Amino acid sequence: MRLLLIEDYKPLQKSLVQGLREAGFAVDFSGDGEEGLWYAKSNDYDVIILDIMLPSLDGLSILKELRALGDTTHILILTAKDTTEDKVKGLELGADDYLIKPFEFKELLARLRALIRRSYQKKNSQLTIEDLNIDLSTQQVYRDDQLLTLTPREYALLEYLAMRAGEIVTRTDIWEHIYEFNSIASSNVVDVYIGYLRKKVEKQGKPALIHTIRGRGYLLGIQR
Length: 224
Prior knowledge:
alpha/beta, Arc Repressor Mutant, subunit A, Rossmann fold, four-stranded antiparallel beta sheet
């Protein structure tokens, strides 16, 4: 899944970007309010992590403008101000959640994953498609009770397809949700990773789960 982090404190920004990427997220980031707003308006994100105190444009102004434009991306605000007024103002402007600095990274991960599940209308961290089981918390994947060994990119692709199981997912959708803004990957990289994923997910004697819909994209699930 793809995140946008808008945080100007460089040590925190660096550690969060590293930690989030290691957790399997694609992360775009900015330390400037105006630039961060441009990223948010120019790209699709699963969640935006937004600091309140920023140079050039503060986080609450960014939040207000995005909501005024009809942007429904889930937004988690970061604030060092532990006051009811700040939390209430952020929530009233349309924030979906907040964290007060300092915070535990594992709590940030849990909140992000909860917001992502909400985006795709999933109630819990277990996804099941036929005999394929995905644990969103541990990122473990089983088919027919056998653990599959996936690379971070393969897992990210499978997770996105699973979130939209039963739907046709275009190559553009995949690119916009699992690759970062500055990615220099080749144009056929999605097809290549679909091929890698098929080799690990599909099992002899079992129904195919990953389908190519010619001219449209891919679908995860059983074609009836």
